[in-house]
Amino acid sequence: MARTHGSRAEITGPLIRDEARRLFARNGYAAVSMRQIAAAVGVQAGALYAYTPDKQALLHDLLQSHMKELLAAWRDDPSADPLTRLERFVRFHIDFSLDHADAVFLSYMELRNLTPENFRNIAELRGRYEDALDQILQAGAEAGVMHMMDRKLTTLAMIAMLTGVINWYREGGRLDRDRIGDIYWGLARGAVGAN
Fold first, then answer.
1. What pLDDT is attached to residue 2?
2. Check whether domain 55-192 has CATH 3.30.1360.40, yes or no
3. Contacts of 135 (CB under 8 A, 6+ apart)
4. H helices then E strands: how many in the chain?
5. Sign of torsion over alpha carbons 124, 70, 162, 63
6. Angle CA 182–25–59, to nearest 5
7. What is the pLDDT of residues 53-87, one digit of tens each?
8. Which end is more exposed in the chain, N or C (fewer Cβ atoms within 10 Å of the end residue's Cβ)?
9. What is the C-alpha separation between 193 and 195, in angstroms, rounded?
10. 1-52 belongs to CATH 2.30.30.90
11. If we measure between CA atoms, which residue out of 64, 53, 65, 50 comes closest to residue 8?
12. 3-state secondary structure of 42
C-alpha cells in the first residue's frame, strides 16, 4: 500500500510542477490560482499543499530548479581558447533555452513576483551563470582576442540576446537550431569585438 502512495506522489509532484510552469508561463504568475493548477493536474486544491506550502514556494522552486539544472548542464573547458569557449557557451545557451522555453520565460518574467528572500536566492544563482560567461570574456580580453568597452554590460547583453531566441523561435520554421547557432555566434563575435 505504501508503495502505491509513493508511486502516486512521484507522479503527482512532477505533474504539479509541470502544470504550474505551463500555466505561469502562459497566463502569468499573478493570474494563476492554486485551484487552477489543481484542476489542470486533476486533484483537489487542498491536495497541492502536500507538495508545496503555497504558490510563492512553488514559483521559487521552479525558478531555483531551473537555474540549478542550467548550472549543472554547462561545462566549460578553461584550457580551450577563449573564442572556442564563447562559441560553446552561445550554442549551449540557445539549445538549453529552447529545450526549456517555459522555464526560461518564467526565470525572466516572474522574478518580480518573488519575495525579497527568494529573489536574492535566484539572483545569486543567476550571478553564478553570468560569472561563467564573464570568465570567458575576461580570458578573451586578456588574450587580446576580445575587445569590449564594458565586460559586465557585454555579459548581460549577450545573455539577454541569446535568451531572446525563445520569444520567436518555432520548431520547423525558416531557421533550424544549427543555423540560428551560426548566426548568433556571428553576432556574439561582433559583440565582443573578436578578431
1. 37
2. no
3. 76, 78
4. 8, 0
5. negative
6. 115
7. 999 999 999 999 999 999 999 999 999 999 999 99
8. N
9. 6
10. no
11. 50
12. coil
User: DSSP class of residue 1?
Assistant: -
Is the distance from CB of 17 to CB of 59 less than 8 angstroms? Answer: no
- Computed on alpha carbons and rounded to an integer, the radius of gyration of the chain in Å comes to 19
Matching residue, cell 525572466: 108
In this predicted structure, what is the pLDDT of residue 195? 66
CA 44 to CA 141: how far, in whole Å?
A: 56
φ, ψ of residue 110 in degrees (nearest 5): -110, 10
Residue identified by cell 578553461 is 78
- Residues in the chain where the model's pLDDT stays below 50: 1-7
Please give the grid coordinates belonging to residue 3: 508503495
Place of cell 509541470: 18
For cell 569557449, the residue is 85
Tell me the helix, strand and coil percentages in the chain, rounded to 5.
75, 0, 25
Look up residue 110 and give its three cell numbers.
516572474
Q: CA end-to-end span of the chain, whole Å?
A: 65
What amino acid occupies position 13?
G
